[in-house]
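@channel sequence for tomorrow's demo:
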Amino acid sequence: MKFEITILGSSSATPIFNRNPSAQLLNINEKFFLVDCGEGTQQQMLRYGLKAQRIDDIFISHLHGDHYLGLVGLLSSLHLNGRTKPMNIYAPAALQEILEVNFKHSQTELRYPLNFQPTDPEKSTTIFENYDVVVSTIPLAHRIPCTGFKFSGKKRLPKMIREKVDELNIPVEQISLIKRGFPFTDHKGKIHGSSQLTTEPDKPKAYAYCSDTICDWNYIDLIENVDVLYHEATFMHDMVDRASETFHTTSLQAAQVALKANAERLLIGHFSARYRELEPVLAEAKSLFPNTFLATEGSVFRL
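structure tokens (generated this afternoon):
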């Protein structure tokens, strides 16, 4: 199953040094999910050849501007480009009022419906589910209510052994039954159990997006054993007091979270404008968690 993350923005409060505010696009089996939508997100999508019309679900972590100020522009462009299918938005409740005020005073009546689902920053809940993936919230500890999001792939049915299909001339209409555990009787009357004809499916993948938060460890159990963890790393650890004061995390703390959560890979982002060069930020995280990568603009990560 395709599970791909494209980074559209990696900056914190101010866009600087060719870095844009937070935004990521997930492609899960050719279904697009937008996670946060900082200023300039639609321009970033154009730059990397990603089609905004393919997005049906938008997830906003919290209401600091660097995480949502690109949303009105994106929704307006979709309106102008003739979109008619609904857009689903999962976000803090107050965002609905913000959008309504913007569209009211610009006298804009969208051609398509917005389906708004408020998130609960106090507890983890499932907010989206389809055949491929379940999305749940991760309550975080920031200066204002904030949630991360966990995208968990669903377990697939077993895989057919191609050689057995050819050898036994198994009809196409029988394959789905075999995958669900039913036996197959060949033309000689011999019964073949499902386990003889199939192999175990790939292990489901999981991606956790931990937006702005102080490192308080309370969300560790919600992100355990994920394949890829994105975690904010606004400051280096020599500024840990500043990180605590602003309810942010250092790169070293992000590595500690990844280690404690037993994540396979760590992506760090949301970098302070004070850092022109990011290699020292990366080196600090890698000193504790070697499998760490910079979540910078245009980077694509596959699970």
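heads up for whoever presents: The chain has two domains: 3-156+202-302, 159-199.
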